[in-house]
Design goal:
Helices cover about 25% and strands about 20% of the residues. The chain is an alpha/beta fold. The chain has a single domain, classed as Rossmann fold, CATH 3.40.50.10420. The strands form three sheets. An eight-stranded mixed β-sheet has the order 6-3-2-1-7-10-11-12, sandwiched between helices. Helix 2 runs parallel beside helix 3. The radius of gyration is 16 Å and the shape is globular. Its EC number is 6.3.3.2. One of its GO terms (biological process) is tetrahydrofolate interconversion. Its cofactor is Mg(2+).
């Protein structure tokens, strides 16, 4: 019998392949729906991410949001720790962070109330398959323990999957935004 680690590894491999293909298809305006949603939350402290490899690019939407309130990007401080979020602005000085993601050169940490979450795969129930480090799961659990925190998965539609191998510690997304649609997750 295959254990959950192997099942997750296989699901990640398949999702990475779909994401790579979607990313390679090119096109502009992929963050349009993300901008549309964030416009309803002007001024609310939020975090995005600096895209790596074939992740869908949230930077245009983040730049728009930064004109109204704080926008941060995740900073990994160590294995097993939750993420911290450092304030980011368009054109700010960046340095290389862990895993090749850029982070602000000067740390200016704050806690976001909206977290735009990169992912490898998702389902329509708010399930998310990440890279396997558990960073976002720990972070969302911590933030949600303090206040309502909106977790928005941002991905290509091709990253959708059925029957994701999820664990009780996996934090659910509240919404998923792709280049083509906005998926609101019904928790009732």
């Amino acid at each position: 019998m295959t254990d959950l680690t192997e099942i997750k590894a296989a699901a990640r491999k398949a999702a990475f392949a779909r994401r790579k293909e979607a990313h390679g298809a090119g096109g502009t305006g992929r963050s349009g729906r993300l901008s549309e949603v964030l416009a309803g939350y002007r001024g609310v402290p939020m975090s995005g991410y600096m895209p790596i490899r074939t992740e869908i690019d949230p930077l245009p939407a983040m730049a728009e949001a930064a004109a109204y309130g704080p926008v941060g990007v995740p900073v990994i401080e160590g294995a097993g720790l939750p993420l911290k979020f450092s304030r980011w602005e368009p054109e700010c000085s960046l340095k290389e962070g862990p895993f090749g993601a850029q982070i602000p050169e000067v740390d200016d940490f704050f806690e976001p109330e909206i977290v735009i979450v990169p992912l490898v795969g998702f389902d329509r129930n708010g399930g998310r398959l990440g890279y396997g480090g558990g960073f976002y799961d720990r972070t969302l659990e911590l933030l949600r323990g303090k206040r309502a925190t909106l977790a928005i998965g941002f991905a290509y539609g091709a990253q959708e999957a059925e029957n994701l191998p999820l664990e009780p510690t996996d934090q659910q997304l509240d919404m998923i935004i792709t280049e083509n649609e906005i998926i609101n997750i019904d928790r009732s």
